[in-house]
Write a sequence for this structure.
């Protein structure tokens, strides 16, 4: 079942947690950095056409990870995307 987040910030914070930012200070700092950047728009063609805002980050192991945020029901959803092959997992 897909998680629904009340705001983009909550979705991004969860994505940062999955990316290994377990420490609250490190996660808050990274979140502030992300919110100051402009996301890349992406359109997914499966399972439906959906517009995502994709934030490119480096996880705690310095590996590239993309976090996708899109409208979902009355809030937002979160996609964890592998930038190497485009495979995504909706949380």
């Amino acid at each position: 079942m897909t998680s629904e987040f009340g705001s983009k910030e909550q979705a991004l914070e969860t994505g940062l947690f999955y990316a290994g930012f377990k420490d609250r200070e490190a996660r808050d700092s990274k979140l502030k950095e992300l919110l100051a950047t402009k996301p890349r728009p992406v359109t997914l063609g499966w399972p439906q056409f959906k517009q995502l805002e994709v934030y490119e980050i480096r996880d705690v192991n310095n590996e590239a990870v993309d976090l996708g945020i899109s409208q979902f029901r009355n809030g937002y959803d979160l996609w964890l995307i592998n930038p190497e092959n485009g495979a995504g997992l909706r949380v």
